[in-house]
Design a protein that fits this description.
The complex is a heterodimer. Chain A is 74% helix and 0% strand. Chain A is an all-alpha fold. Chain A has a domain at 1-111. By secondary structure, chain B is α+β, with helices and mostly antiparallel strands. Chain B has a single domain, classed as Dimeric alpha+beta barrel (Alpha-Beta Plaits, 2-Layer Sandwich), CATH 3.30.70. In chain B, 33% of the residues lie in helices and 28% in strands. A four-stranded antiparallel beta sheet of chain B has the order 2-5-1-6, with helices on one face. Chain B has a two-stranded antiparallel ribbon with strand order 3-4. The chains are: A mainly alpha, B alpha+beta. The interface between A and B is medium-sized, with 27 and 27 residues.
Chain lengths: 424, 138
């Protein structure tokens, strides 16, 4: 019995991960408040946990959860109506409101959930929220993750995440963010806010900014899944496919970018035979979906094009740096940033030699936003090594080591500094 | 984590009988759901074993045996590759598949870390070398 109960609990956990985003999305459309919707969905989960271990998992668990949540929602409306009626003698109108709400509810349940999921994604990633809040809320509402799971993934305390989510939901309620898919002029900004949150999740997994692991692959998988879902919900947005392409291609290198003792291996030194051909194939397919939609190429699509150039080169010496440089030129124009300039400098170094690259990097040294960015001294160190200026290179690697919060990366940088000092 | 879902062959699939329109429609809908949920990485149906072959390795000798093969139940008629969070999630997804009379197997795909201690640096190096050779031949 105990074993069976545990098995059912594991099944419920899996069903929750599959169904909760749809459940919360459908409920939010009716109750117009993410917090209330989440509570109702949670009530349904509690009911499942109480009933399923004995009664068995129903044939259509998603429909069961939705029906249960619906009953709770109707109770919720009745309760609210009664409270309001005590405050004011307008019972008649409220009665009608309540009937309308229940009718809305039935319509919402019958409708395609796709639109509601897209609304939920836009709402959870509303620019009124900080990037951190968007990330936490997205993983919670659309990734079906518990607060504890999110906290562990980001190496922060559970209460930090819980507070972040509570505050985010309050902000959404206070600012009366409508539950809708934005149209018109607003849409581009809103969409980039969604894409940014997904890419932040991916990057946190891909290059863990803190801690002893260089990668936390589960977060990459979560981000990829969210991206793939979004690509089907908003199939006509080139940048969505651009982001998916970028993530698929980057993820294809996961196996190759960790060395034997867990140390990072840079792109050009990776064993390309370890690259995941399935993910590369998926990435290139997503990129061509983006290209087929036409229009000016956005920053994600451009970055994916660069990643695709690397993916297509069977050996690092086959890399088409001229082509990469052309894409960086376009990227620097479309989405100018010191980080793009820094990466462009690397491409210049590969195409025209380390001195040309160093020249560009040196111009970026005064850039305020790069002062704490470890990649700048690390790139500079690389180029100095190639130019035989080992003492200066050692200093740069040491500086880079002092700036990174990832211990694996720090060790690697300190090793390189030591090697420079020994060789000079 | 990734799971491979193996659909077994039956008399019909081995005879090359194609699924009827309803089954095709149901399967199409199911596949769409998997894609929409970001779960499906790949999936293919396989032709009958009469169009395939086996190579038997025995004491260094290699013998080619042409299909068809008997024991339909042990043959694979199609597969999916899924990305999910747990075996339970894979099971939940599989339960939603529109099959009526068959048995479908779920197998977790090895990730490099799963080999643990058994994967010594030497073995790992060998594997990397092999992968590289395979990659270069492509």
């Amino acid at each position: 019995m105990a074993v069976a109960a545990t098995e059912t609990h594991r099944a419920i956990d899996a069903i929750w991960k599959i169904e909760s985003p749809k459940l919360i999305a459908g409920l939010t459309r009716v109750v117009r408040d993410i917090g209330v919707a989440e509570d109702l969905a949670h009530d349904a989960l509690v009911a499942a946990l109480e009933q399923w271990p004995d009664a068995g998992v129903p044939n259509n668990p998603g429909a069961w959860l939705m029906a249960t949540a619906k009953h709770r929602a109707v109770d919720h409306f009745r309760r609210n109506a009664m409270v309001e009626r005590k405050h004011a003698e307008i019972g008649y109108e409220l009665e009608a409101d309540q009937r309308a709400a229940v009718a809305d509810f039935d319509a919402a349940l019958d409708d395609d959930v796709g639109d509601d999921l897209l609304r939920l994604m836009f709402t959870a990633c509303h620019p009124v929220l900080s990037a951190e809040a968007r990330v936490a809320l997205t993983l919670r509402l659309l990734g079906g993750m518990t607060t504890d799971e999110i906290a562990r993934a980001f190496l922060v305390s559970e209460s930090t995440i819980a507070q972040r989510i509570v505050r985010a939901k309050r902000t959404l309620a206070d600012t009366r963010v409508p539950f809708e898919v934005p149209r018109g002029a607003d849409r581009d900004e809103r969409l980039s806010s969604v894409l940014e949150a997904i890419y932040l999740i991916f990057n946190e997994g891909y290059t863990a900014t803190a801690g002893s692991d260089w990668m936390r692959p589960a977060l990459c998988e979560d981000a990829l899944r969210l991206g793939r879902i979004l690509a089907e919900l908003a199939p006509t947005e080139p940048e969505v496919h651009g982001l998916v392409a970028l993530m698929e291609i980057q993820a294809s290198r996961s196996r190759a970018r960790i060395g034997r003792s867990g140390e990072p291996v840079v792109l050009l030194e990776q064993n390309r035979a370890l690259w995941d051909q399935l993910l590369i194939h998926r990435g290139l397919a997503a990129l061509s979906r983006a290209e087929k939609l036409g229009g000016p190429r956005g920053p994600y699509q451009l970055q994916a094009s660069i990643a695709a150039c690397h993916a297509r080169a069977r050996r690092s010496e086959d890399t088409d740096w001229r082509r990469i440089l052309r894409v960086y030129d376009e990227l620097a124009e479309r989405a100018p940033s010191p980080i793009v300039d820094l990466n462009r400098a690397v491409a210049v170094a590969m195409a025209d030699g380390p001195a040309a690259g160093l020249d560009l990097v040196d111009r970026l040294r005064a850039e305020p936003s790069l002062q704490q960015y470890h990649y700048l001294p690390s790139v500079r160190g690389d180029l100095l090594v190639k130019l035989g200026r080992l003492d200066e290179a050692a200093q740069e690697f040491e500086r880079a080591a002092s700036l990174t919060r990832n211990s694996r990366e720090r060790n690697l940088l300190l090793d390189r500094a030591k090697a420079c000092r020994t060789a000079s | 984590m990734r799971f491979m879902v193996l659909v077994k062959a039956d008399k019909n699939s081995e005879a090359g009988v194609l699924p009827d329109t309803k089954m095709l429609a149901d399967m199409g809908k199911y596949n769409e759901e998997l894609v929409k949920a970001g779960v499906m990485l790949a999936g293919e149906g396989l032709q009958p074993s009469s169009k395939g072959a086996r190579v038997r390795f025995s004491g260094g000798k290699k013998t080619v045996i042409d299909g068809p093969f008997t024991e339909a139940k042990e043959l694979v008629a199609g597969f999916w590759l899924w990305q999910v969070k747990s075996k339970e999630e894979a099971i939940e997804w599989l339960k939603r598949a529109p099959f009526e009379e068959t048995e479908v197997e779920i197998r977790q795909v090895f990730e490099t870390d799963d080999f643990g201690q058994a994967m010594t640096p030497e073995l790992r190096e060998q594997e990397e070398r092999l992968r590289k050779q395979v990659g270069e031949k492509k």
